[in-house]
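Much of the work behind modern protein science is quiet bookkeeping, done one molecule at a time. The protein below has been through that process, and both of its lines are reproduced in full.


***
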Amino acid sequence: MKINREFTSDNQSPYQNIKFKKVSTEIRNPDGSIVFELKDFEVPEQWSQVASDILSQKYFRKAGVPNKLKRTEERNIPSWLSPRIADEESSDLNYSSEKNSQQVFDRLAGAWTYWGWKGGYFSSEEDAKAFFDEVRYMLANQMIAPNSPQWFNTGLNWAYGIDGPSQGHFYVDHENGKLTRSSSSYERPQPHACFIQSVDDDLVNDGGIMDLWVREARLFKYGSGTGTNFSSLRGSTEGLSGGGKSSGLMSFLKIGDRAAGAIKSGGTTRRAAKMVVVDIDHPDIEEFIKWKVTEEQKVASIVTGSKICSKHLKSIMNACHNCEADGESCFEPSKNPALKREIIAARQNEVPENYIQRIIHFAKQGYKSIEFETYNTDWDSEAYVTVSGQNSNNSVRVTDEFLDAVINDKEWNLVNRADGSINKTVNAKELWDQVGYSAWACADPGIQFHTTINDWHTCPESGEIRASNPCSEYMFLDNTACNLASLNLMTFMDENKCLNTSLFKHAVRIWTLILEISVMMAQFPSKEIAKLSYEYRTLGLGYANLGGYLMSKGVAYDSEEGRSNCAAITSLMTGISYATSAEIASEQGPFPGYQQNAKNMLRVIRNHKRAAYGNAEGYEDLNINPVPFIVENLRDTNLGMEAQKAWDEAYEGGQKYGYRNAQTTVIAPTGTIGLVMDCDTTGIEPDFAMVKFKKLAGGGYFKIINRTVPEALKQLQYTDEEVEETINYAVGYGTLKDAPFINHESLKEKGFDDEQLDLLEQNLKNVFDIRFSFNSFTLGKEFCSEKLNISDEQLADMNFNMLAFLGFSNEEIDEANTYCCGTMTLEGSPYIKEEHLSVFDCANPCGRIGKRFLSVESHIRMMAAAQPFISGAISKTINMPSDSDVEDCNEAYLLSWKLGTKANALYRDGSKLSQPLASKLVEDEDVTESGQIDTAQTQVEKTIAVAQEAVNSIVYGSRNKVPDRRKGYIQKAIVGGHKVYLHTGEYEDGSLGEIFIDMHKEGAFLRSLMNNFAIAISIGLQYGVPLEEYVEAYTFTRFDPAGVVQGNNRIKNATSILDYVFRELAVSYLGRNDLAHADNTDVDFSLGTGAEEGTLKNNEIPWKLVKKVSSQGYLRGQDGLSVVSSSGDMGSITAEQAVSSSGSSSTGTSDASMSRVQAARMMGYEGDACPECGSFTLVRNGTCLKCDTCGATTGCS
């Protein structure tokens, strides 16, 4: 093939006009420990920190990259293209990781060019060089990105000589067409992300049920995803050949789900990407439909039941001991009224009788406290791990025949798998309602429209399409694979805000060729997949950033013009891709399965062409006509003409030469690769929020408006001043100076001075609610206490609202908040015209005051606009508000079917237990107002009550003495002018076993009293009294000495020596950061903070750092420790600014209702924590989730 140069010049580096910069990155565990860091690597200057992080953290090869290389000459391969290996003769040879983005771009482009040359895809050496340069340019400029397995695997052998033993893969030799077992793990890469596999109704043989789990494991291990239609498995009422009944579909699905759940931890923290498909006529379909609903109910029962049991059983235990009767009478309900009352209350809440009796027996034996574990609804919590169905996306395959039966309220037969006989007859409408209810209740199952899918099937003579990959965009024959790549639409927009069709077509042509070469060079995890992928050669070219593209043009996502833009772009992409496939076929021949399917494939191409020319009728062999492209809705007339002409080229080329590929395009979720390309939106999705939080190189984030918003405002003819004011309305001014009501003048009237105002202003730049800045951590406890007259109890109260205390009303706080922190929406802006608001609509309401969001129908109609021009399908989630009902779900599914889409996945806000609602029926403050409990107790009463609880919790048993040689630490501090030395002794597991308290130069009375008090505490600890009880009993006790604490960077003030001691122990051993006053900055052996985080100080070596925290004497000179840094939290926006219940945030808060989850939801995120990095920055991405912090996805791309 001839390759033209559009971006590069001959004899000039493709990087010639690209500026590069040096950046650094690190990966941390959720506990703060550093997993990976890389400093001063080069990326193109326009790349963001997030894109740089993902490239280095996920896509850089971490080991085995030689610094000295030499070429290995191959016959018929140009020397510049020859593979490279380590130069073992070099004295300077060493191995490390990739350290430069150019290495990655060269590795990928070089491998594709090398295999393309071997496969005869280039007309000349000059064409190969042009291809090599053009691809590198596009990668460096974020114009396109292939799926993750390409970044992981492609070119490692060609660029660095990395190799290893075969992993059981196969390939078809392109020279002789023979199926061959791989002898190398890297010579041929595994570049495919998406797989579809079959399963036979057989237990242990090849191709059967247990064999599928092995095949799935091989894919999951290498980061790919797979889907399977399980409808061939017998139902639970069907017979076996040896007698008896089958275990049924669900029993095996649960086994596979468990296997996938276990495999995901094998070297990665991402969940397995898996799709389970079952036909609507399967005998066990009803059980499959409600599978996840039932499992979610189990989670709710586990969580609620564990808390009910814990509450009542502890109450029963306390009733046994808080009794003044003699002997056994305390344990007899007839003689202990309190015990009788608690037993009745427990029974009313269905606490098991044997548990009630067990606790009473425990109490009789002298136990005074119990441990009854409770669970939560986090999606990766123990409660969810306990149940099944959590490791796959589920879909039901429905036919047009079934949907006609639903509409006409007819009966529907469930068919036995073994003999085809009728197992059961049900009402179709009732079965459909079950699907709708399950989708409403737990967002599963999705729907795949079997008839529509197969009406557009290019190879029906080879068999039906029965399944999809996990994200639902790849749909083809069983035992085939697809590798993906997505074009960043924003990079093809010209200065007139139109698509540069010439460059776009050029990129589509080159990347269709790259994906075709990838099929030729690839190895596959099974013989069947290798054979059929070679025979049908399916590709997955797509695009990303449609939502950003439309917004920057000033076009609403939910508009006829928006949908026509989508249709035109998709039509142009797929038409040119098929035309390129025909061009390749003219030189390489069509795919081996083409002749058998030529008639049907040309029929499908004609139907694509009819849709492109806007025909409403005249389609061949379609049950549902597609939504045609209406060119008149486009202002960009050139795009419309090119979108139509592309299908003329595609059809004419196919008539002459056939096609090299059975499919060429899909629209993938583009999760991780979308972040690598710095896309504002992914795939075909709209934006999820107006205001984004941009990651800084040194850690932390800052607020910016979505970068397409200013462009859209200018397109809509707003002035520069109006654009600036509108942006300030959304993101705020970042200051309270000149703010309404709460400003520098009004604060000075309340007692603030310039020092406090400066501290406040520094903090306000990073928060998204001013209440986060008004606390003792920002302003200083001394100022709050002495100048503002706020008591210690109020400062310690996480519900304390300092601004309300200072006399500001909620309305005044809200107005100042809007001025300083912005609204994170354009709604209400004084400059935006009502008719323009639709341009800025997002998938979810934006900010605190946002009400607008895209309708369910708008999502479906956008899919319908693109679907007639896609070979495969579209990965997209249909967002639904929480108040949607079951009928809304059913209607959404039916609308998708009527508009000709191939699949639909609904997500109703709050339908998952693990994902909280965006809003509550009753706010926390309302509950507090209506059910407030009088807590006006004196300090003495509180102390007595807590101390009594501690006394009641003693567990009598044998004493567990600490080892004779034990570890611990010594903390010196000055409390109210008095030196205090706290010594701790620990058990082997690190738990606290003893304390010593010594006071320097104090009178004999106080010094001896503290010493003996410490001995008493130590004996209690060794007899099993929980440290938590002592902490609750003695923190906040008041007596002298008291006051400012010096020498301890976590504890800054104490109401007594006991208050200080137990705050220190709680922070150090219980992680009770809510009892600390400052961040963990006293550990000077940590690897730096802020921008220097992870940096060794003064060229220190790791072992010297270890010696700072280990005792050489205790180790007796053994150098047996490994270095692990644990210097704090991730530093993400939610960790730094959203308030945790522990109150340990650096910015602090006086409003406990602003939790990390709620803060994440306010920023447009889902509210779940990323399982890989722990950040609360997960967003919906196609049918999966992606993390905007680290780029992790729950999908396969």
In short: The radius of gyration is 33 Å. The first strand starts at residue 20 and ends at 28. Residues 265-269, 916-956, 1081-1101, 1118-1154 have pLDDT under 50 and may be disordered. The CA atoms of residues 823 and 849 lie 7 Å apart.
